[in-house]
User: Fold these one by one.
Assistant:
Number 1:
Amino acid sequence: MIKMNRDFEKYQVSLKILLERDKKFLFLRNTKDDHLDLPGGRIDNIEGDIPLEKILIREVKEELGSKVKYKIGKPIAAHYRKSANRKVPVFVIVYEGKYISGSIKLSPEHSSYFWASVDDRLKRSDFCDMEEYQAFKRFLGE
């Protein structure tokens, strides 16, 4: 029998995309806590009947602007994100994505962005928590 930790009885679900361009991946920098983030965001309460990919498209448009063109792939990773400024943890599902074209226009949620290769060393301090950091390390093959 699995024992549930009471802290995880309530959580939010977030959909993110790991956009790849020329063997580099797009990372955003959060305005609030300066941690790394991916384009995407939480599913709204009213989106229960909307396909996940449509929700992800909405979130990416909000965070990167309407000029960015990309192709969504399959889900490639999942992890919890716990942060001090959230009352409940967020369960994150990450989709693979292929950047096609368009200029990025960040929302106020992010201060900057950069493209990182697998060879670039991402630091633990760049991420919200250890779970998220380890998920990226596994995916990027470090």
Note: The helical segments are 52-64, 130-140.
Number 2:
Amino acid sequence: MRIVSGMRPTGKLHLGHYFGVIRNWVRLQKEHEAFFFIADWHALTTAYKDTKNLKSHIRELMIDWLALGLDPQKSTLFIQSKVKEHTELHLVFSMITPKSWLEWNPTYKDMKYNLLKLQDLELQFRGALRDHVKEFLGSIPYRIEDFERLEEHLLEAIAEAMVEAVFEGEIDKGILKELNVSKRDFYETDTYGFLGYPVLQAADILIYKGEGVPVGEDQLPHIELTREIARRFNHLYGDTFPEPQALLTETPKVPGTDGRKMSKSYGNAIFFSDSSQEVQQKIMKMFTDPQKLRKNDPGRPDICPVFAYHKLFTGDSQLVNQIKEDCSNGKLGCVDCKKIVFNSLEEFIAPFRTQRENLEKNTDTLMDIFHEGSEKAGEIASQTVGEVREALNI
């Protein structure tokens, strides 16, 4: 099976990236024909105003990929923008993709509202509107075939209109100050590229005639849209593209040092580039069970981020069970517990850190690997675009 997947260059990789994506890629490259690309065009989707660090982020991603086990002998590793055919196929697909498909994509609004921290505001409007929408639908003199679906459609549309009204100054202007978001922020997020990035994503996959795409559940709508675009092109111009399948894999959740999802933007991440001292400092400052204030207090390991690290990095299952028991009984304090985690985590990270340091000294080799990968990918992409041009009579 031909596997295709990419990652935006946003900086150095942390533990969450490894367990969420890279570990699975390393496994897949042993079993399938794999194409993995650095999605630098996609980086402009939300960060188009500030590109000064883009080149350094690409370089860091190259280093991390190779250090964490992606093998150029087993995978084709390349940079998206070095294969010009991606943008050409994106243009073709944008011509045949109905705008409604993109507007209905559930992750489009989710991403925008997440960027601007508007989820709570929209939920507040939806909650206030629900009874009124029910009453309105019950009063109209027409049969409603699917009440729940229409109700949700109206709630979403009205709530979005209410959010827009806030930014137009038609509703309490104080809300914007509370959100710390401006009208300009709201509308400058709505670029064509932001709306249409799933079309570029479809081009990324289909240009290599990818059959499988490793994704998380949140990306499933994008893969279905890619399948729809492939079907539409094939219907209009003849069979050209396969319909790729989503490859879902269970991944352990790696909490950040504050217990939230690990994220660079939260400042709670442990990076593979961190020194041993930096890792130790982060571990010793980790959040724990808020009810365990003293060493002898009984703890609740199942809600403690530190114990989640034990399950991932402390390889001895008997020791993990003993830690859980001693914490629950108040026999193990948080400081000693964190010291054990640090030793286990350092043993895990150290080989990757060493690999990273070696790669940083060999920039020329690094660039050669991705140059060769981009050339190989370009040959396949060029052949696909040739087929597309022939199908379009261009």
Note: The chain has three domains: 2-100+191-254+363-392, 118-180, 274-360.
Number 3:
Amino acid sequence: MEDLKKVVANNIIKYRKRAKLTQVELAEKLNYSDKAISKWERGDSLPDIAVLNDIAKLFNVTLDSLVSDKEEKAVSGLRSFFQRFYSNKMLITMSSSFIAWLVASIIFVALSLFTGIPNLWMIFVYTFPINCIILIVYNYLWKNIYYNFITVSLLIISLAVCTYLTLYLFFEINRIWLIFIIIVPLLILAYLWFIARNKYK
């Protein structure tokens, strides 16, 4: 029994530190006092099976790994890796942006090798608003609303540039530069929307 208390104590400490929680924070999540957490981690007492199950769920580990001194299996380690990956919001956002530019590069190289389509560099111009949309989506997911005004503004400008270059290069339409006049009221509307959204949130 004493050995089990020691094993559980060590595992609670290990998983709590891995989750970057203090004893007080863990106590709040489990609706227990920090004194109870301290007793568990010292091995003075042992949580009942229901509490052990709650702790295992909280740390996203198996109950067996919480009461055993054996290391988690490879599957658990892989799951832990993906959990850490998905908790890194910046890494996910940057990876998604990188994938968009990677796909654009692959399309550019493939078309350059096997076709004679002119102005293929426009693929990268079209990728920019796509990348802005990706950033806007992740800003909403991660609730980084303060970055959305910047990304929405970049999206508006990049769409205008795409439209201008497409009409000028492929359709040879003159005076298409007038399209940039539309950008100003659109940016003002985006700014007002941003202010209103934050004011009444």
Note: Residues 30 and 55 are 8 Å apart (CA to CA).
